Amino acid sequence: MKKETRVIHQPTIVLPQGNEPLVGPIHRSVKYTFPSLEAARTPEARLHGFDYSRDANPTTRQLEQLCAELQGREDAVCVSTGMAAVWLTVLGNLTAGDRIVFFLECYRPIRTMIRERLVQLGIEYAMLSVHDHDAMAEVFADERTKLLLFEAPTNPMLQVPDLETIVGLAKANGVSTVLDNTFAGLHNHGQFEIDFYLHSLTKYSSGHGDVMGGIVIADRKRIASLKPWAINMGATLDPGAAYLILRGLRTYFLRYRRHSDSALQIARYLAANPRVDRVFYPALESDPGYRLAGRQMDGCGAVLSFNLAGDRQQAWRFIDALQLFATTSSIGSTESLVAPVRLYFARDLSDDEVERAGITDGTVRLSVGLEHPDDLIADLEQALDKAFS
Amino acid sequence: MGFTTKQIHAGVTPDPLTGSILTPVYQTTTYVQDSVDEYLAKGYSYSRSANPTVHALELKLAVLENGDACTCYSTGMAAIQAVVQAALNAGDHAIVSDVAYGGTYRLCTKIYERFGVEFTFADTSDPRAVKAALRDETRLILTETPANPTLKLTDIRAISAIASDRGVPHAVDNTFLTPYFQRPLELGADIVVHSTTKYFDGHNATVGGAVITKDKRWDDAIRFVQNATGVIMSPWVAWLTLQGIKTLSVRMDRQSANALAVAEFLQEHPKVVRVAYPGLKSFPQHELAAAQASGFGAMLWFEVKGGVAAGKRLMDAVQLCSLAENLGSVETLITHPVTMTHADVEPQERARVGITDGLVRLSVGLEDVQDLIDDLQQALERV
Predict the structure, then answer these.
(1) CA distance B278 to B301
(2) Cβ neighbours of B79 in A, within 8 Å
């Protein structure tokens, strides 16, 4: 063999049995070879083998199996972002003429996707309130309704849906349920009979604000039927991203607990502050979702919202005065983040819808990071002073 | 500025903070705003919507294709999906090359037909067939040239003229030739699609896709889909692709020269029935190939005497050529479309478009060409 050829067909290092790396490698290769055409065509190779990285990748597969296990389901498929997970699940479960149900109290890009794009593919929608069980019962009973897409707790106002009631209503009417479980995390809500769990892995799973990813988790049959859609859409997760998320997950439980503890301390501080009208955080005893969250969730996470007792100008001045909270979207990273809710998450809503969602010009969303909570509270205190001086 | 200069410098400016000649990998999800009032003042808020490393690649690709703007994706299929999404609604119709990558065919028939979009798979090498397929509802013409795997060519100028007469965008999948050899936007097309997995990366190390548009209107519509459906490219993949592109012209020149040598060898071999390579005089559309592109690429196919059985034996006998269904990398890859890339296409449809059972596709790599010829020689002897 000439050296020009050798540089392309490089030596392979075969690891001796029992001498494997503790942490799996990043499988960057796009292609996987087979010894023969027949070997590539066996049922085993087609089901569990690796061929082309858009279809399946060993590093990504490791992440899929871990997340499925944490969520208490059989299988999963990873995609490039959380929104790609939403898009894949919605598209894969609908046909022109079907109706999708979602809630006013949800992440803005989901409303945009449905109201500006999905309708053009012949899909109808009903946008209800997460607490309106009567309206759900009515819409679910219509046989065109095929899918419910929802969050628990909701983003950005932390409303806690009654999962037992909602899932029961959906099941009784043959409506499939898709729960964006990003805020609650991989360890929550597995006890409900939900058909598809979605996560933005960008948030608590990666945890370090450095990587984007999404996942759909379900039983084996549902993932098997969704997988060809993922391949055809090409919404593949980068194996390098999968590796970073696997690393992030090693501290998942430590982080989620600490996020939850610090967020509760901050929620209590804000609830006792006269410059704050109302705090939305389901672990807070005064929150309307407190009992429900206590029953169905283990820990409420990093995110809380609150209404300042002031106008938009004061809210923006408050946000700009914060030193430790960075002004930006996203949640669930090691750093504390802050976002003006109406500007970032309600631009598409009418004044009436904004009011029904409980949002005011003074609504602020925090994602409480892993800094010391005393430092965070001191930062909030000085920013409140500046905003109201 | 020459193409080879642009492939090195376009889109990339030294990092203002450190002078780093390469754009850093911005491995971050979110961007801090200076104040609420200055939201998006620097152009970045969240990496699903925009990322500086990915943006550098988008700028480079837009320059190389001589387009206005570019968006990058998780895969080539995600790029095609974004174009289909942006152009087509329920009730619309599209004309697609009847010979196209199997994934494109599946995207149309398995996903979009379910949402009331209709497709005509037409022989786009014949402008009359494209004209005949036009309907009042036609909103997109999507071609692939050379087509995968038959290498049938579409006359980009002729189809673009038909499309522009009707105010319908013409999107061209330019993966096989890359802008180094062929620039569809200069020939009248409106949109170019790429699987960057192939020649742009070139090293079999990433999967990715890109869409380059001639005008901003299409870029806006496509960018909306990219952001809403989240099928984005990761910054790490963008960085690797930026590096790969710097040797694009060198690889393309050498791989094309290797392909021509291999094609000439196969043409003379008694066990080979047919060879198709646009650079061969015997190729039926050789003149069109020479007229609309400055090179012939590194993809070829041939048919071995003895049909499927002989084709399979050959595939198993090769040593250097890897049995793998990618293309465009430095490694030479060999594929049997009927059992691999086009297995999902109906047999009658395959026969109609010329994908015969014995057809073997070769993506010629960067190895020493004599080693490749020796490998094919020994494999053919064992057939």
Answers:
(1) 10
(2) 234
- Structural domains present in chain B: 3-245 (3.40.640.10), 248-382 (3.90.1150.10)
CA A239 to chain B, closest CA, distance in angstroms equals: 9
Known catalytic residue at B60: no
Which chain B residues are within 8 Å of A89, Cβ to Cβ? none
* Predicted confidence (pLDDT) per residue in B24-41, tens digit: 999 999 998 988 888 888
- B101 catalytically annotated: yes
User: pTM here?
Assistant: 0.92
Measure in Å the smallest separation between the Cα of A295 and chain B Cα atoms: 33
Instruction: Look up the ipTM and state it.
Output: 0.87
The alpha carbon torsion through A70, A75, A79, A82 (nearest 10 deg) reads -50
d(CA B254, CA B366): 7
| Domain-embedded: residue A13 | no
Do A144 and A178 belong together in one domain?
yes
The token pair at A250 is 């090693």
How are beta strands A176-180 and A196-200 bridged, if at all? Answer: parallel
Q: What is the DSSP string of B29-68?
A: SB---SSGGGTTTTS-SBTTT--HHHHHHHHHHHHHTT-S
At B46, list the tokens. Answer: 């969240």
The tokens describing B23, both together, are 């754009």
| Catalytic residue check, B139 | no
Contact criterion met (CB < 8 Å) for B27 and A212: no
Q: A8 vs chain B: nearest CA distance in angstroms?
A: 6
Whether residue A224 is found in the same domain as residue A280: no
Residue A229, SS3? helix
Q: Which of B60, B152, B183, B198 is catalytic?
A: B198
Find which of B26, B28, B30 to mutate to test the A interface (most A CBs within 10 Å of its CB). Answer: B30
Q: What is the pLDDT of residues A191-204, one digit of tens each?
A: 999 999 999 999 99
List the domain range (segments joined by +) for residue A317: 252-387
Q: Do B111 and A337 touch (CB under 8 A)?
A: no
Confidence of residue A163 (pLDDT cuts 50, 70, 90): very high
Could you tell me what percent of chain A has a pLDDT over 70?
Answer: 100
Do A213 and A304 reside in the same domain of the chain? no
Q: How many domains does chain A have?
A: 2
CB contact under 8 A, A80 and B111: no
Q: Are the Cβ atoms of B234 and A202 closer than 8 angstroms?
A: no
Number of neighbours of residue A143 by Cβ within 10 angstroms: 11
* A54 belongs to the catalytic site: yes
Helix (H, G, I), strand (E, B) or coil at B332: coil
A227 near B CB under 8 A = no
Query: In terms of domains, do A115 and A184 share one?
Result: yes
Check CB contact of B252 with chain A, cutoff 8 Å: no
- Rounded distance, CA B192 to CA A81, Å? 24
pLDDT digits over A367-381, tens only? 999 999 999 999 999
Give Cα separations from A271 to A278, A280, A338, B112 (angstroms).
7, 9, 17, 50
Say if residue A267 is in the same domain as residue A237.
no
Give contacts of A 100-129 with B, CB under 8 A: 109, 112-113, 116-117, 120-123
